[in-house]
Amino acid sequence: MTDAVIGTRTLIHVSSDGGATWTKMLEVRSVTPPNESVDEPEATHMESPGRYKEFVQGLIDPGDMSFSVNHIEGGVTDDYIATWRGQGDTRLVRISWPSGRWRRFGGFVKGYVPDEITPGEIQTATITFRVTGEIVRGTGL
After folding, report:
1. Are the beta carbons of 128 and 31 closer than 8 angstroms?
2. Phi/psi-derived region of residue 3, left when phi > 0, alpha when psi is between -120 and 50, beta in every other case
3. Do the Cβ atoms of 81 and 75 come closer than 8 Å?
4. pLDDT tens digits, residue range 11-21?
5. Which architecture characterizes domain 11-41+55-139 according to CATH?
6. Considering just the CA atoms, what is the radius of gyration of the chain in Å?
7. CA dihedral 67, 107, 8, 35 (to 10 degrees)
8. pLDDT tens, 29-82?
9. pLDDT at 5
10. Which single residue of 79, 88, 99, 105 could bond 135 by disulfide (Cβ 3.0 to 4.6 Å)?
11. C-alpha to C-alpha distance for 135 and 141, rounded to whole angstroms
């Protein structure tokens, strides 16, 4: 039997006061968690065995995270993200899963793009945060 679960009830919250209070992003449709990667500095030298390049693990780049929302021009999430982007500060972001697990990290608004508007379709937008610093994982709120 599988332990797989569906993504419903996955939530995104943002805090501008160090985690004392959180603002929920509304009408979230999909979430792409941070895409961490590790730098790989080349350490090849004149006597590297067999003429093979050598690498060492470098620093961890926490990457970006993005999510799509039902775009409501002038709505709560639209106004919050637009204001935050204009202020240019870094805030705490928390992704919470229905299991009670979460990831928390610093981030700033890297992109906010309303998607193509077509007749008969829901208007959506994609929001991208640049993650900065360590990603903390935990359970419970």
Report:
1. no
2. alpha
3. no
4. 999 999 999 99
5. Irregular (4.10)
6. 19
7. 70
8. 999 999 999 999 999 999 999 999 999 999 999 999 999 999 999 999 999 999
9. 86
10. 105
11. 16
